[in-house]
Amino acid sequence: MMRRLARFDLNLLQVFDAIHAKGGVSAAARHLNLSQPAISHALAKLRDALGDPLFVRQGNRLVPTSAARAIAGPVREALRGLDAALDAATAFDPAETAREFRIGVRLSGEMPRFSALALRVRSEAPRAMLASVTFRRRDLVVALANGDLDLALDVALPADDRLRRHFLGTEPPVVVARKGHPRVDGAIDLDTYLALDHIVATARPHGPGMEDMALDRLGLARRVAVRCQHAITAWQIVAASDMLFSLPRSHAEVLDAMWPMQLVDMPLPVEQGGSYLYWHQAADADPGLRWLRAIIADELGKSE
């Protein structure tokens, strides 16, 4: 095996990975800053070495064969591991790096988290690029393994041996009501909370919130009159009505700074959801990601 690897041109794997990720020779050439003939020549050598066409043309795209699909994940993970090993052998300097860091952030969590993180990263690494990237939970392991994401922020997820995680903390929810609300003045009791209509902001098309589950345990229920997808939309509705809206305190404080409301304590015990930072085990030794993980833990790791 080692003799076979010694004879293999590892540059061909970079070409394979680029074609697989970008879907064509031209796009791969642009990504690797090489000419199209150079990419085509490398692909021909790779096909010969592996005894498989690897990609077949369908319209304007090169579609991977079953053999290509089978090796795509291991090749991407191996290339990431090699990059991390080479990076680890050299000093990482945040002030000089021009690296792009891709952080998986759910839509509901971007507003209170990403702005503070971006400002901190910019202060220490002014040439770095930072991207907030949405993701599907079922694809998280693959996205972290193949480099589509470097890190991810999310709630507690099922354990996976391939992932590492760091607990960032919890925070209580607050109830938002407009200033001048006829039944809310700096505080709210449970009877008033149940008597008023509520807004839920979530990307999920249906299903209860944490408040509804807490109420259900008490044999109670609230009336959700409006369901929208974003907290800003819910905030606008609250500002022009007597409805109530609940969200984590850090989310509420960001919006309150722009559009002041009443933020009052929740009148019932709600289980506080924990927040976690996730990364792939292959990225443990990456000095750039160790630096970024430390920043995230310091900036966002505030539990209550």
Automatic annotation (TrEMBL):
Source domain of life: Bacteria
Signal peptide limits: none
InterPro entries per record: LysR-type_TF (IPR050389), LysR_HTH_N (IPR000847), LysR_subst-bd (IPR005119), WH-like_DNA-bd_sf (IPR036388), WH_DNA-bd_sf (IPR036390), YidZ_PBP2 (IPR037402)
Occurrences of domain HTH lysR-type (ranges): 8-65
Single Gene Ontology MF annotation: DNA-binding transcription factor activity
UniProtKB keywords: DNA-binding, Transcription, Transcription regulation
Protein's UniProt keywords contain Cytoplasm: no
The keyword DNA-binding is annotated on this UniProt entry: yes
Family the entry assigns: Belongs to the LysR transcriptional regulatory family.
Protein name: LysR family transcriptional regulator
Taxonomic lineage from the root: Bacteria, Pseudomonadati, Pseudomonadota, Alphaproteobacteria, Sphingomonadales
